Amino acid sequence: MATRVPGRAATATVDGGGTVTGWSVAAERLTGFGAGLVLGRPAVELLAGQVPIALLRAAVRHEPFSGMVRLRRSEEEPASVELGAVPVRTARGEPTWVLSALPLQPLSQPLAVATAGAAEAAARSAAPGGAVAGSSEVRARKRLALLGEAGLRIGSTLEVERTAQELADVAIEGFADFVGVDLLDSVFGGGPPSSAGLVFYRVAQRSVLPGSPESAVAAGIGDVIVPDSPMARVLASGRPLRTDYRDPEIRSWLAQEPERERLAEEFGIHSALLAPLTARGVTLGVAIFLRHRSPEPFDEDDLLLATELTARAALSVDNARQYTQQRDTALALQRSLLPSRTPRQAAVEVAFRYLPAGGREGVGGDWFDVIPLSGARVALVVGDVVGHGVPASAAMGRLRTAVRTLADIDMPPDELLTHLDDLVLRVDLDELPEGGTAWAGSSVGATCLYAVYDPVTRSCALARAGHPGPALVGPDNAVTFPELPAGPPLGLGGLPFEAAELNVPEGSVLALYTDGLLRASELRGDPELGLDRLGSALAATAGSLEDLCDQVLSATLGPDAPTDDVALLLARTRALPARDVADWSLRHDPSEVARARKLATAKLADWGIEEASFVTELVVSELITNAVRYGRTPIGFRLIRDGGVLICEVSDGSSTAPHLRRARTEDEGGRGLLLVAQLCRNWGTRHTPRGKTIWAEQEL
Question: Where is the PPM-type phosphatase domain (predicted)?
Answer without folding.
Answer: 348-573
